[in-house]
Amino acid sequence: GFLDHVAVGNEEWNPWEEEEKSELVASQQRYEANLKMIKNARSHLEQTSLRVQIWGKAAIGLYLWQHIFGGHLQPADVAAQWREGSQKAGKTYFSFITGPSVVPGYFSVEAENVVLVLNGREKAKITYATQWLHYAQMLIQTHKIQHVAVVLLGNEQCSNEWIQPYLKRHGGFVNLLFVTYDYTLVNEEDIFQWPLGVATYRNFPVVEPSWSMLHDPRSYLCNFLGTVYKNSSRETLMEILKQDGLDKLCWIAAREQWQPQETNESFKNYQDALLQSDLTLCPVGINTECYRIYEACSYGSLPVIEDVMTPGDCGNSSMYHSAPLQLLKTMGAPFIFIKNWKELPAVIEKEKKMSLQEKIQRRKKLIEWYQNFKAWMRQKFINTLENSFLPSDKG
Asked: Could you read off the pLDDT of 140-165 as tens digits, one per residue?
């Protein structure tokens, strides 16, 4: 803009004009080159601040890497023995490795900082997880690595006592713990709540919102595909759906027994149900938080959540007024929370009166919220690692 102004404002012929112009252009180029140099130096500085290697030894690692970080893995084949990816974020260079071939002592440790992704759901998994922790401890003792953080798929009843002796605060070596469910020991200092996410162990994909997902009318008001346990609130839900004929308006496929292995057909059915219904019913299981909540968000189907505490040692609601699902509520999740399935008929009545336009707005809001939620979790994860692992400037 400045160059044009000089040329236009000078109507009389000026023999030096060309020279001035080229001098201006040259100085502009020098300025841009300097800027570039500063930028590169800065990004180079940032680039070398922290190197973190993530060892994905539980399926929740794929949610962290592919869904929250938006990272890619090579090879793409989910059954590959070894998969890896990398990306730079903030001041940190992250690399991620996963697969059956990632075995303690049989791969190169390429960073001084390690994030271990572990499964602590049940006894056998905990035994396996502790082997990884002992391997990391040995690397710390021999000064091969400096810092360790753990992302833990916690127990559904929050009995995670076994991990405590490994934490720095209890004389162990683990600097930070990110753990699923409303674990009472979450303190936002060294123990953080982490989202359960989608069922990556069933290969639930990263879903890119499409125009039709947002704008098309959906054939069903709600869906519930899942196991109905004896004497659970899911039985109540089934009765209410049948009694008001709501099962005709919703896609309902209930089974008596849980099946860990999806067939291609059952998985496709489930994805279609999410895509074809405006609401996804989320009754409590062993824990209130379930994969279904996040999977529904991926397809713009609003979760209707049975907002009750489940038995066990998870955040007691007398102390944490927002438990269960504290993480989602704190982040302002735009869901429908109900205390009892008897409230469902009123919710469905309201649905019937909503225009497509209103539903489109709601889907946009939900999908945007979910994208922001993942971006926020990613930023929080990076900041927490950097604050803990980078040497502080305080004298």
From this structure: 999 999 999 999 999 999 999 999 99
Residues 309 and 285 sit within 8 Å (Cβ to Cβ): no
What's the pLDDT tens digit per position in 96-151?
999 999 999 999 999 999 999 999 999 999 999 999 999 999 999 999 999 999 99
Closest alpha carbon to 246 in 292, 281, 216: 281
Q: How far apart are CA 308 and CA 312, in angstroms?
A: 12
- 142 and 80 in contact (C-beta within 8 Å)? no
Show Cβ contacts of residue 46 under 8 Å, excluding neighbours closer than 6 positions. 88, 90, 91
- Residue among 303, 299, 316 nearest 204 (CA): 299
What residues have CB less than 8 Å from 383, skipping those under 6 apart?
A: 90
Provide the b/e sequence for 97-130 (b: ≥16 CB within 10 Å): bbbeebeeeeeeeebbbbbbbbbbbeeebbeebb
List of domains in the chain: 51-180 (3.40.50), 201-372 (3.40.50.2000)
Q: Are 139 and 145 in contact (CB under 8 A)?
A: yes
pLDDT of residue 194: 98
The whole-angstrom separation of Cα 78 and Cα 75 is: 8
Q: Considering only CA atoms, which of 181, 111, 52, 89 is closest in space to residue 380?
A: 89
Residues ≥6 apart with Cβ < 8 Å to 45: none
The SS3 of residue 296 is: helix
18: its two tokens: 């060309």
